[in-house]
Amino acid sequence: MSKEAEKKIAKARVAMIFDTPFFGYLALNLEPTEAKEMDFHTMATDGKRLFYDEEFIKNIDLEELKGVIAHEVCHVILWHIPRASGREPEKWNYAADYAANDLVLKDFKLPQGVLRPTKELENQSAEFCYNHIPDPPKNGKGRFDDHGQWKDWGKGNDPNGKQDGSTPSDAMESEWREKVAQAANNARMKGKLPAHLGEMVDGILQPKLTWQALMRDMVTSAAKSDFRLFPANKKHIGRGFYLPSITGEEIKVAIGLDTSGSISHDEKVEMMSEVKGICDQFEAHTLWIYVGDAEVAQTFEIHEFDPLPTNLNGGGGTDFRPIIEAADKTEASCLVYFTDMEGAFPDKPPRLPVIWVSVQPNQKAPFGSLIEYPRNKK
User: Above 90 in pLDDT, residue 283?
Assistant: First the structure.
């Protein structure tokens, strides 16, 4: 390890403690670690360590170094690593950098040539950026930190997870939420927690996104169409909701509806209500709807002006494989599967990204993204 590099990093973090204590406190929780083999010979993090290239540290301005350290902290506390959710990796890397840099540039300097958000991307999540940026260049132009270590997020904790069923990643996120709360309190006591950081902290500690909003983000991320917030979808403005409208190609989504014996009549009605919600959000759409339990009982192809099915067959056991296999043969960009997660899964993930919407709390998915839609909701 380079003593000079570590001294410079220490100097930058001490300065951050005095000037921007929120980021300074959090930066102290990442262990400086020299890494000679990185795709980008700059800095990186895996949520535990602050990797650095010796030559980069040697040549960078101290003020810019503070900004780069804050950038790595942002990747951790904004959960950019676990939130990738099966998205195209390089495009997600760019989206995460846009979101992180937007926040960092409010308080720090960054090196020339890094990704700087346009007005459209200001104050937006990485998911929003992912949906609104073009496919990234293959040469990595604009990116300056290395994301190769993201695959190690959560490693280094208890490899078996906790006895309550949580994973090392769960434990790590819980640990960082506590650190964020402590850092915010520390900065507030010193009178150095700007309003924009206070709002961000509130969002981290008390997420306000509904499960429908999470699903919308995941569906639009998987689609290749051009979604824009302005103009908003006119169907929902009167209700006070500004949801994306769609221009260009139609959205194509497969829907799986679990109608096994463990799913109640009311839950089946609620599932169809949410399918209608997808239709209302995305005016130009093709939905392949698969209804079934241990086999596919019904199949529907739905377009803009088609009515949704009302009678759903089923009532037996649950096997997710038939619906997944059928959906995988369509042109859909993703499969949204409404279920209680109690059934037989495929041995390996399908081609399609799968978004599981579980009516049963505290479930785990062997692949894809999981959204909880609790039973007995009010």
Answer: no
